[in-house]
Amino acid sequence: MSISRRTARSVRILGVASATAALALGVAGNAMACNIKDFTAVADCDDNGKGIITVKDVDASGVKATVSVYLESNGADAKLVGEETVVGTREGAIVTFSEDWAPKAEYRVHIKAENNAVDEDISPNLITPDKACTSTETTPPASTPPASETPSPSATPSDSATPSPAESTTAPATTGSNAPSPAAGESNLAETGANSNTPVIAGIAGAFVLVGGGSVFYGMRRRGATKA
Known about the structure:
The chain is of the alpha+beta class.
């Protein structure tokens, strides 16, 4: 059974149309798929002058992806800055990481999308600008300590606390001695100068008295004999 020329031409036209449609669908499918090229990273400063790292996802297919940012040092991860989840949009979905980055610092940004659509780093690594951010936040002034209370004047000592002149000049009483006081007679002898020679003097005085008396008696007797 032979195929007419007309039928063969129709089949050829149909095949070309099918191939064209398949190619168009394939291109469209590739354009809609999540790709590492859909992600970009930038180091910037926010409105307050603080450092930030911004990652943008322009994946129109809306595949959910995890963004991880690492600070690099000598070709190795020094620290994990943070991880955020993003769902791409045609206009671009953005995630931001707060990071006080230093000038010319290096960061590695890794993208891991669902269904293993993407699992790689944004290439090349992010290099920060030559100049760091300058914070515009105003440091609040230190609180002024409360004024210290004025110390009250020291209390004036009362009049009763001041010693009176009489009290200050009065000599302290002499404590009495336990030794016995001398007898009255002894004190008189001491005042008149009497001592142990008193008996001798008294004896001499008595002798003079006797001699005087004898002389008087003898004179009176002789005078009487003369008158007779």
